[in-house]
């Protein structure tokens, strides 16, 4: 079994709107990564035999794509049901020029879209949420905002600052 820890941000509407983070510890099982192994779209999902999933191997080239499907078996330690479906495309972002990869200001492997449909253990619908973002590569370095004093005024107003400076 694999456990995925997700931070889910929810807006609570009442007298005032406040944001809070909730952690969902989702365990999945029976996960399989399927690759687009043909350019003939008419042959997708037509094989009567079990198609072996991609088993890893050498790092795939850019624009390699696939779909990961897995059963959800628990949420925050409680039995659950449901499905996780994620679609990924290798983008191979790198800060150094490497043939076959895209040069960027960050290092990332894949762009990923996910749909998570969760049910209670008896099959009652709980909800569906989606995820989107990069996977692979080192965690981004987050720089703390540096306070800045206004440097100029316009029409009697202090200059607005984003609270950080570019390097």
Explain this structure:
The chain is 0% helix and 52% strand. With 167 residues, it is mainly β. The protein is built from no helices and 9 strands.
What features would you highlight for this structure?
167 residues, mainly beta, two-stranded antiparallel sheet, 9 strands, 0% helix
Task: Summarize this entry quickly.
With 167 residues, the protein is mostly beta strands. The chain has strands at residues 2-12, 18-35, 65-75, 78-94, 102-103, 108-120, 125-135, 153-154, 157-158.
Straight-line N-to-C gap = 44 Å
Shape: flat
- Secondary structure class reads mainly beta
Given as residue ranges, the uncertain stretches (5+ residues, pLDDT < 50) are 7-16, 152-167
Major β-sheet profile: 7 strands, mixed
Strand content: over 45%
Kindly provide the radius of gyration, computed on alpha-carbon positions and rounded to a whole number of angstroms: 22 Å
The count of strands amounts to: 9
Order of helices and strands: EEEEEEEEE
Mean pLDDT over all positions: 77
Topology diagram in text:
Elements lengths: L1 E11 L5 E18 L29 E11 L2 E17 L7 E2 L4 E13 L4 E11 L17 E2 L2 E2 L9
Parallel strand pairs: 4-5
Antiparallel strand pairs: 1-2, 2-3, 3-4, 4-6, 6-7, 8-9
């Amino acid at each position: 079994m694999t456990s995925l820890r997700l931070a889910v941000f929810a807006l609570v509407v009442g007298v005032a709107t406040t944001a809070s983070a909730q952690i969902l510890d989702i365990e999945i099982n029976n996960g399989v990564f399927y690759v687009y192994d043909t350019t003939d779209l008419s042959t997708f999902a037509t094989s009567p035999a079990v198609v072996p999933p991609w088993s890893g191997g050498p790092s795939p080239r850019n624009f390699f794509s696939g779909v990961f499907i897995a059963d959800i078996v628990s949420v925050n330690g409680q039995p659950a049901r449901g499905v996780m479906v994620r679609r990924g495309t290798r983008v191979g972002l790198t800060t150094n020029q490497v043939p076959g990869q895209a040069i960027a200001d960050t290092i990332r492997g894949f762009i990923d879209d996910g749909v998570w449909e969760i049910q209670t253990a008896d099959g009652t619908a709980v909800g569906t949420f989606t995820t989107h973002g990069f996977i692979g590569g080192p965690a981004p370095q987050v720089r703390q905002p540096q306070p800045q004093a206004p440097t100029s005024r316009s029409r009697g107003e202090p200059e607005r600052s984003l609270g950080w400076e570019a390097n």
